[in-house]
Amino acid sequence: MFNLKKHKSKDNYELYEVDIDNKVYFLGDKENYKKNIQDLIDNLEGLLFDSIVFIFGIDSGEYINELENNICSYNKVIIIEPNKEIYESHKEIISKDNIKLILYDEEVIENFLKGLINYKNFNRLFVHSFGNYENVYKEEYKKFIEILDNRYLVAMSTLGLDNMFRKIFFENMISNLSQLNNSSPLNSYIECNNNIPAIIVSAGPSLDENIQTMLKYKDYLDKFFIIAGNRTMGTLIENEIIPNLVISVDPAQINYDMMKKYLNSDVPFAFYEYSNKDLVKEYKGEKIYISQLFSRTIEDLKNLTGTYTGGSVAHICIDTARLMGCNPIILVGQDCALTYDKHHSDNATFDIDKNPGELEKILVKDVYGNEIKTTLSLNFFKMKIEEYIKIIQQQNDVKFINASYGADIIGAPHKELEEVITSINFSKCVKKLVPDKSISIDSSEIVKSILQHINKFIYKSDECINLCNKLLNSKAKESLMDMKEDDINLQQFLYIMEIIDEFEYSTISYYLGSYLTKFLFDIRQKYFEMTAKDYDQLTSNFKYQCSTFLNYFKELKTMLEEVKEVFLKVSQNVN
């Protein structure tokens, strides 16, 4: 029996017939193939110049020419082909700079989309299943959409978080700079507890039962490296279980309130740039710095290690245990679900949790294979843990155990905590985290450079606003293509573009964090809305470009003045 056969449709287009499990399918309409092509083109209506197009299935490739006529050079087209024979027949032919053909493979697609979809472009995606592909390759298409939805959610959530916390992120970052010299870098503890079992204590509803088991086997606990988040530190200490490390990454004041009773604790405390500034400043125990930003902006810190981030402190706790060499890594209170119809453990519930509001519920499988309610955000955290485990287990022999009673976490099989504690062979002792204050930076100089950068580009914004207005009122030629190299108007236009590049690609601009993220997103939404069809005409239109850049610099100045106001306020309180 054949696997693949090429045919001609009645309207004279080539298409494939495939045999899958002794069932024969045509990948396009054998009567009216032109309609398949037209459906694709119709779906691209309103395509913007920087939209990303995903097409599931290439079939005979008959639509490529028509597709090229409806996109511009700045568009990216990703064609996912689930049939290996068809992929092989096209992979050498499809070699356009902005059209990429990928053989369907979950892992390849996942990794590819990770690098492609971000906060700038997540809302500029076009998706089309060509011809009959969606019906012929149902499972593959369903999984592709699931992966795409996940990346969309990650990008959208990142932007939403940035918008909500941009002021507090910036305040915390400026303040926490001054705490680095009094901290030890996470690098100092890489593989310090090789093959020591770790318990990651999260605040899910299962924690109450998990705590009872830990108390029952309290004499065993000194053989485990125990990591708590700020929400669970108090629960452990009140039960006379002392963690080896507490990690706090959330920026808001509520995280300070959760830990204010324990500020004099001698448990090592790990933080990153955006952790709550008051908590970082007032915590009396030894501090450990986890780098996410400063290793990209401060030359002396460029070799510092960061951790995996997945939206929750639990992800950072898990990766910190892995970096320290811990194995196995045991998850307690990591429900990722509304176990017992609760959001958090009774012992880790605070006033802020009393009125969570109505949350959209979905059903997932629990650790016993039954259905359990969860929320979209909790399920997202679960997916990020699963993604992390998958990545790590491809490279390292690290075991993950889920001792919670909530959602099933792929890659972390469920075991009763009692069984885990009593079955582990304890051949090594836990090593304490000895301080290594090897960071030495001049935080006041860095703070000064940030202010200078803000002031510089407020000035440059004014300069470019004036230039744009001047150029708009000039008698310059309509097309950039018609201008001579020594044309003063062209020279001034190129200078404006240089300023944009200088600002956006400066490492000091990274300090602006979520302000920069929001600015770039908003600018794109408001002023860079060219359709693909108009791209060539408008990018060469001198007055159109000047008008766009005028708006760019007006918005930039407004943003920088807002940041400066926040900066001056917080820098007065930095030691």
TrEMBL record:
Q: By what name is this protein known?
A: DUF115 domain-containing protein
From which domain of life does this come? Bacteria
- According to its UniProt entry, this protein's organism is Romboutsia maritimum
* Name of a matching Pfam family: MptE-like
- Domain (6-hydroxymethylpterin diphosphokinase MptE-like) spans 171-339
